[in-house]
UniProtKB/TrEMBL annotation:
EC number: 2.7.11.1
Top EC class for this record: transferase
Protein kinase domain ranges (all copies): 12-272
Alphabetical list of InterPro entries matching this protein: DUF8082, Kinase-like_dom_sf, Prot_kinase_dom, Protein_kinase_ATP_BS, Ser/Thr_kinase_AS
Classification via Pfam families: DUF8082, Pkinase
Gene3D superfamilies membership: Phosphorylase Kinase, domain 1, Transferase(Phosphotransferase) domain 1
PROSITE patterns: PROTEIN_KINASE_ATP, PROTEIN_KINASE_DOM, PROTEIN_KINASE_ST
Domain of life, per lineage: Bacteria
GO molecular function, one term: protein serine/threonine kinase activity
Keywords per UniProt: ATP-binding, Kinase, Nucleotide-binding, Serine/threonine-protein kinase, Transferase
Residues at which ATP binds: K41
Organism: Caballeronia telluris
UniProt protein name: non-specific serine/threonine protein kinase
Length: 463
């Protein structure tokens, strides 16, 4: 006979089931006291009969303690912890999104590079915050990463997190998911933040290549690969990837924790550097392989004289780009990258309606430093006219130009939404911006998602 359905837990009214895992069931519930939806995570009742009730309850309380200390946009919030005679539960933030594991299964292959890097940047931001608070997740995997409709990634399930001040998790215990576990987790050695970075690198490898770096017919086979084998270079699995990523990911998947990147910030910087290196090291055929464009995003326009000026397209809607302006930009870019310029300009024009932002989006695709300078210099006067117009207050005075520190801070804020390319865009735009507000404005319009763009503008004080 099936047990009766759960109608409530504590003050929470159960509305449905969101999923089930090894530990228990996750319910969709309503909190009448605060008038909001929550996700209730429970421990399976049958687990109490194994003689390990005290250990399980301690681990569950540990999850509440660990996650409850973390208030971050990329970490699922924990609101409450409670127990009944039959179970224990945690009330968590209800996230209207899908697990990354489901998104990867649905894609059936690699994720578009900039999308993957954007998600990964958010994952690193969450891990950096958690590690700074003494918490190691220890089970980073796609199923524990939720992606909202607006593209925000949030980390959940700190059920096996290790709080440095806790004695619950001891050396010698093996906890985690085999395909994403670090070598030290398999060997029972203490796991610190570098273990999370190893698991995160496995996730990035899977997103970029469409396959996991360590696979096998059994957990033992996977363990042997993690402990002994070096995975294939990502660019061999997905030729569309810049080869500069190979060194970064292989290092991030090192067997020795000391050989890996030591912090999330260091790994983020390495990816940013690899993005920059890929722009200067690749020939035209390489650039063509790294441009992933959907048919819907490619706009067409009739040919027009390349010599026509782009002046006048400072701000407007994407549809307001003139044929002459786009043809002129395409012609200048084509002299550096070849026929792929048409796709690059179409994609950029669909993302932004500002000349300075479009130039910033296109410049990284030019393979040489000299070529990039020539391209940006060709539009310098027009960009400066637009930036000065935006930045000059009504009284005719001028704000100070953005400093290096302000530019770096702006890049960090933008990276939450765009990933490693944010550093490139921030540097390019800072060189043109007549003020810090002008820099923020030009960076804001590079964010295509309206919700994220509005949030960025609030974060930097534009509204």
């Amino acid at each position: 006979m099936e047990p009766p359905p759960v109608r409530s837990l504590g003050r929470y009214r159960i509305e449905g089931t969101l999923g089930a895992g090894a530990m228990g069931v996750v319910y969709r519930a309503f909190d009448p006291r605060l008038d909001r939806l929550v996700a209730l995570k429970t421990i399976r009742h049958e687990l109490f009969e194994t003689g390990e009730r005290a250990s399980l309850m301690a681990r569950f309380r540990n999850e509440a303690q660990a996650a409850g200390r973390l208030s971050h946009p990329n970490i699922v919030g924990v609101y409450d912890y409670g127990e009944t005679p039959d179970t224990a539960y945690i009330a968590m933030e209800f996230v209207a999104g899908r697990g990354l594991d489901l998104l990867l299964d649905a894609s059936g292959g690699p994720v578009e590079m900039y999308t993957a890097l954007g998600w990964f940047s958010q994952l690193l931001a969450a891990l950096g915050f958690a590690h700074a608070h003494g918490i190691v997740h220890r089970d980073i995997k796609p199923a524990n990463l939720l992606v909202t409709a607006h593209g925000r990634l949030q980390v959940t399930d700190f059920g096996i997190a290790h709080v440095e001040s806790s004695t619950l998790t001891v050396a010698g215990s093996v906890v985690g998911t085999p395909s994403y576990m670090s070598p030290e987790q398999f060997s029972g050695a203490p796991a610190d933040g570098r273990s999370d970075l190893f698991s995160a690198a496995v996730v990035l490898y899977q997103m970029l290549t469409g396959q996991r770096p360590f696979v096998g017919s059994s957990p033992v086979a996977v363990m042997q690969q993690v402990l002994r084998e070096t995975p294939r270079a990502p660019s061999l699995c997905n030729p569309a990837l810049p080869a500069a990523f190979d060194e970064v990911l292989i290092r991030a998947l090192s067997k020795d924790p000391a050989a890996r990147f030591q912090t999330p910030a260091a790994l983020q910087q390495a990816l940013t550097d690899a993005m920059g290196a890929s722009g200067s090291a690749h020939g035209d055929h390489e650039i063509d392989r790294t441009v992933l464009v959907t048919a819907a995003s490619v706009q067409t326009w009739s040919a027009a004289p390349a010599a026509e000026s782009s002046r006048g397209d400072c701000v407007g809607s994407p549809a307001a780009w003139s044929t002459a302006t786009l043809a002129g930009i395409e012609a200048r870019l084509a002299s550096q990258v070849g026929p792929v310029a048409r796709l690059l300009v179409a994609r950029g024009a669909a993302r932004t309606a500002e000349l300075s932002a479009l130039v910033a989006l296109l410049a990284p695709h030019i393979p040489s430093d000299k070529g990039r300078r020539q391209f940006t210099d060709a539009f310098a006067d027009d960009v400066l006219t637009c930036a000065t117009h935006r930045a000059t207050p009504p009284d005719g005075s001028h704000f100070p130009h953005p400093s290096v520190e302000e530019t770096q801070a702006a890049a960090l804020k933008l990276a939450v939404y765009l990933g490693p390319i944010a550093n490139i865009l921030a540097r390019r735009e800072a060189a043109r911006a007549a003020s810090l507000p002008a820099l923020y404005e030009s960076l804001a319009i590079t964010i295509t998602n309206e919700h994220d763009r509005a949030r960025f503008r609030r974060d930097v004080g534009l509204q």
